[in-house]
Amino acid sequence: WDLLLMAVALSMDACALAMTDGMTNAKMPFKKALLVGLFFGFFQFLMPVIGYFITGVIADAFLDTFESISAWVSFGLLAFLGGKMLVDGIKEWREAKTHKDAFCEVNAGAEACAACQKPEALTLGKLFLQAIATSIDALAVGVTLQMAALSESGLALGVWGATGLIGVTTLLLSVGAVYIGKFAGNKLADKATLLGGVVLVGIGVKILLEAIL
Fold first, then answer.
1. Residues 16 and 181 sit within 8 Å (Cβ to Cβ)
2. Angle in degrees, CA 117, 120, 125, rounded to 5
3. Against a cut of 0.70, is the pTM above it?
């Protein structure tokens, strides 16, 4: 369950972008929506794997130290990632609200602002950059997975099962987010990152409390 919650939390950035892609490409076919999910899901799977094995090389040399500080490291990383997502989410929400107040409501007719009306083409290059940008933070999650693997309880599902779960979860939620963006407008897009930040921080606190108590 911790892994599933982490997978959902990690997918929130990708979901926010997928919603935006859906909003700006209202006629996007299912194949293109699936491609969005595949890009996001693959990189959310790949980055933790890279982080996990890099950390494994270091942990072999400093195993005792890593075991003693693993809970604190996991908490620190998840708190940092979750805090960053919260800050980014609040910033995005404020910018979206300011934009709406300043432009969209004033120009509610046919002359609405170009930023709201003009769709942007979703090219493979743009999708690749989006996938990289939303998955970089998952490198650090690989460190957290390595810490879990070194703990007494171990890592549920193993590294491939855990990272696979993250990838598949991101894929499915991203495809769904494209359609939410297409049909529900921008009401949820500025809240997905906030939700992800809350979940990541919550998991970090849970890990720390379990180690202390």
1. no
2. 170
3. no
